[in-house]
Give the backbone structure.
Amino acid sequence: MAEFKSGFGAIIGRTNVGKSTLINSLVGEKVAIMTNKPQTTRTAIRAIVNRPNSQIIFIDTPGIHKPKTKLGETMLETAFGSVTEVDFVLFLIEATSSGIGKGDRIILEKIKEAKKKTILVINKIDLIKKEKLLELISMYSREYNFSAVVPISALKNDKTNILLDEIEKLLKPGPAYYDIDEYTDQTMRQLAEEVIREKALKLLDDEVPHGLYVEIEKMESRLNKNDEEIYDIEATIYCLRNSHKGIIIGKNGEMLKRIGTYARQDLEKMLGTKINLKTWVKVRQDWQDQDSIVKKFKFNN
């Protein structure tokens, strides 16, 4: 029988290249929230893939961007900090790239510094012709000696098994760090906060999302009159301005109601239990620069 192997890997890339889509596709469960807005992931989320002879723990990191607040600086620190702490790196780029842009160049330099085993993952291959793909592979291969180059479509779940096979080759013999039925190290509270934020990101205008922060104030389990388990969850959505608060609540509370309904439906599927969700909106103008909040997004190994 083959020796059991395990290891930790960081998924790193620019904002909006599909890191969260990839991680959910590899795990087969919703672990990271997905939107079409950049910088959706703020923390280093651990996601676990259990295979017959291995356990792979992925760290989905915030996208590389130019920071403007303490939160932005912490997100960047989290992304780059994770590269030095793992066994391997997945460097995710877009197949539609015409060259090596500034953001990808910065990531490449960090990978070179860390000297980590790195797989170049080229996402969204369904959007380009084969000749373009070969050009991209050649361009990046001149920059670094990648352990493997794997073109995929994370959205269509295409070639992700090939990627897992390549990762398994890089692992060393080791134990299973998590139970085989676990797929994330996030607590139920963290999952709930992230799902509510995801729904708000998807439904709100462009000027609001990056000023949003969700905090679960209460999360308690009880039995209803039919002896079914139900979770009472109370959440506060913090925003930066009064004008944002009005947009989040919406006319007659309709927008907040929609956010809550979509979040509750998702959480009931994820947690396999009924949810009673109540949400409020408050203005906290400086939360992105408050140490007590920002420290929640730091990478902990």
Notes: Confidence is low (pLDDT under 50) at residues 33-44, 63-72, 297-301. Residues 254-271 form the longest helix (18 residues). The beta strands are 5-12, 45-51, 54-60, 88-94, 117-123, 148-151, 172-173, 213-223, 229-239, 274-283. The chain is about 35% helix and 25% strand.
